[in-house]
């Protein structure tokens, strides 16, 4: 198929960590602006360090990189740079995660972070015509208590965020650890979602559905190991926000040619394409689509269905979803 056609398809991005859009050039610029010394000689050395063996090997580098983000202006610049990539890839709507604890743990105020991200998103609506939502995500390698404190901290800003997520190291940190936090978040009006079935077993997807009552699963690719679970996900049109390039970089699949996204799509699952942490994983939305065309033989029909799924699975009002599908 014509790859350029993909570039023209309107799409929604539903699984994107704003801290994961920090390109090495901006990392250096912010380090300089904030008087921080980076442990890298230049941007080439940073890129050379992005050789990951699993999720944890990535997270260590990703949390260290986020240390250059200090002021609202830093978060604004980071978010604006991502939104320009959205414009280039015809991502017309984006629902972005941020990890408050990554910043509050090192003394940056919740409000400083939210102000910067939200400011760029507001300007993008006006100047780029891109709509958006913000989702705050709890770090599952930290305690329930820390997540609860973060939720409390977020309550005064509740109207500026649509949902809560759960991310970071998966294996050994099952969703059940955060049942009470999610119950409280749902009661406050946050829409619940969670990373599950990236490195963790299908059981974690079960727990996310049953205990956290999520309406979307982030990743979810290991659901394919449990046929009964697959059946349920398909019957309920439960969205799985899949990140193909991320999965290859973090060795969830050896190559894109081994990825199961099109199998799940053809089985009737509501899978979507997303870039996750594009500055670290080698590409934004269209790079993911192009990889699927070139390495997995994705057809035009499949690409259109994935784009339509991205709107179906979004938190846009029904009328706006329909207008894009
Ligand atoms: C993440 Cl790829 C991935 N998985 C889990 N947590 C994350 N946080 C940022 N990227
Ligand atoms: Zn993710």
TrEMBL record:
Keywords: Hydrolase, Metal-binding, Nucleotide metabolism, Zinc. Residues 10-324 form the Adenosine deaminase domain. The active site is at residue 198. It comes from the Bacteria. Pfam families: A_deaminase (PF00962). It catalyses: adenine + H2O + H(+) = hypoxanthine + NH4(+). Zn(2+) binds at residues 15, 17, 195, 276. Substrate binds at residue 277. The record marks 219 as: Important for catalytic activity. Signal peptide: none annotated. Binds 1 zinc ion per subunit. InterPro entries: A_deaminase_dom (IPR001365), ADE (IPR028892), Ado/ade_deaminase (IPR006330), Metal_Hydrolase (IPR032466). Its EC number is 3.5.4.2. The keyword S-adenosyl-L-methionine does not apply. Its cofactor is Zn(2+). Catalyzes the hydrolytic deamination of adenine to hypoxanthine. Plays an important role in the purine salvage pathway and in nitrogen catabolism. Belongs to the metallo-dependent hydrolases superfamily. Adenosine and AMP deaminases family. Adenine deaminase type 2 subfamily. This is Adenine deaminase.
């Amino acid at each position: 198929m014509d790859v350029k056609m993909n570039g023209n398809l309107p799409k929604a991005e539903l699984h994107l960590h704003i801290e994961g859009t920090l390109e090495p050039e901006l990392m250096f610029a912010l380090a300089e602006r904030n008087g921080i010394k980076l442990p890298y000689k230049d941007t080439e050395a940073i890129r050379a360090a992005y050789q990951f063996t699993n999720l944890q090997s990535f997270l260590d580098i990703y949390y260290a990189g986020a240390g250059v983000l200090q002021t609202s202006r830093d978060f604004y610049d980071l978010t604006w740079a991502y939104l320009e990539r959205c414009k280039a890839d015809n991502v017309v709507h984006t629902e972005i995660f941020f990890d408050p604890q990554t910043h509050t743990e090192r003394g940056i105020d919740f409000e400083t972070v939210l102000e910067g991200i939200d400011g760029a998103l507001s300007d993008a609506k006006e100047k780029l015509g891109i709509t958006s939502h913000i989702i705050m995500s709890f770090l599952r390698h930290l305690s329930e208590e820390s997540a609860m404190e973060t939720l409390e901290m977020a309550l005064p800003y509740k109207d500026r965020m649509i949902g809560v997520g759960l991310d970071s190291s998966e294996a050994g940190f099952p969703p059940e650890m955060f049942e009470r936090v999610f119950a409280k978040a749902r009661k406050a009006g946050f829409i619940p979602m969670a990373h599950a079935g990236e490195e963790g077993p299908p059981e974690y997807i079960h727990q996310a559905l049953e205990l956290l009552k999520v309406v979307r699963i982030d990743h979810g690719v290991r659901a394919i190991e449990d046929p009964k679970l697959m059946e349920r996900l398909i019957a309920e049109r439960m969205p799985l926000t899949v990140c193909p390039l991320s999965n290859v970089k973090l060795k969830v699949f050896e190559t894109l040619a081994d990825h199961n996204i099109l199998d799940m799509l053809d089985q009737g699952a509501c899978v979507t394409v997303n870039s996750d942490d594009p500055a670290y994983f080698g590409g934004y939305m269209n790079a993911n689509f192009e990889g699927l065309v070139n390495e997995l033989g994705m057809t035009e029909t499949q690409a259109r269905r994935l784009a339509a799924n991205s709107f179906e699975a979004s938190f846009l009002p029904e009328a706006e979803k329909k207008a894009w599908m």
